[in-house]
Protein 1
Amino acid sequence: MVQTVILNDTPIQVTDYHEETIIHKETGKSVPKIKLQFKVTNEAYHDITTLLYEMDFQVKVPEKNLDFPATIHAYSTSVTNLYEEGAVGDFSLELIGR
């Protein structure tokens, strides 16, 4: 199972990972699509959300030998306020290759 996904040189420890290949709607090219789940603590919240606001990433999945540019297709979190000490949120992220 994949344990780490690297987004723009930031390693993310994942709790769930799914990968498939799709046909990109705009380009017609075959591209990777990955879905991942990961936990974010209140200590990491600012850094992770700042990273995700970039929207475009160089994605590396070392265990799968993948390295590709991608954009966010879908993103959600289980909580809206991770500024409380000890809070942990479940993040869901879907990335599609460009």
Protein 2
Amino acid sequence: MRVLLVEDDDLIGCGIEAGLRQAGFTVDWARDGHKANLALDTTAYALVILDLGLPRVSGMEVLMRLRDAGNHVPVLVLTAKGTVVDRVSGLEAGADDYLGKPFDLTELIARCRALLRRAQGRSVELIRYQDLTVNPAAQTVEVGNTRVSLTSREWAILLQLLTNQGIPQSRSRLEESLYGWQEEIESNAIEVHVSNLRKKLGAGLIKTVRNIGYVVEKG
């Protein structure tokens, strides 16, 4: 899943970006509020991690602009300001969760996963579909009682399809979920990854929707 990280501190940003990638997320990193606005105007994200103390445009302005535009993407606010007033202001402006600096990276990732579950209408981490058991936190997939090894790209496509059951995902939408700003999109990559998933998880799991893309039917 693709996440927008908005943080102007290089040390903190590098740590968060590395941790998120290790946890299986695709990450775009904007270092000021203006670039964050541009990113949000052009890309659909599963989650936004937003520092409030940003140059050019403040994090609070980014958040309010996002909500005024009707964008309901989950937002986790980060800030060095830790007073109750600051937390309340952020939440009332449209933030979904709040984490003060300094913070533990494992807690940040856990909060991100909790926000994504809530947005997807899930109360537990495991995703069960037919004979599949998928654990997003551990990045594991089992067919029956057999563990199946997936590449990071295959994993990302499977998760995108399973968390959008019944909603066809276009090739461009799948590419958006897989590739960040600095990553080159390989020719026919989506088709190859879907073919591999069908071989590993069963030919009937992922359906082709003609002239649209792919879908996992609602379970």
Protein 3
Amino acid sequence: MPLEHGTPASSTRRIAERALRRWGLTAHEDDVLLVTTELVQNVTKHTDDGGEFRMSVTDDAILIEVTDTNPAPPRVREIRQHRAGGRGMLLISSVARRWGSRPAVWAGRTGKIVWAELVRRWPR
């Protein structure tokens, strides 16, 4: 799904919800929506030309990826009590099995893919 600068994360959240229902993985909804929101907001707020959202599932994981044109890798910031925001990657690291980034070209510019992998627990 393409992401445009300033687009709210809510439309991407709805797409993620539909995919989870289609895959029968609604038990993962809270974590997936948290990661989706944080990654999408990073793209739509901090880049000038948007990016792209992808979500896939394997036997043991749900993979959420966003692509953008900012080559700077994401980082977990030091928490400052009086600073709003800046906790997105900390939140992601608390629910994801692992996360990271890799260089990529998007819209003809050098950027990155930021990804988070969530453990897929089988429904009972």
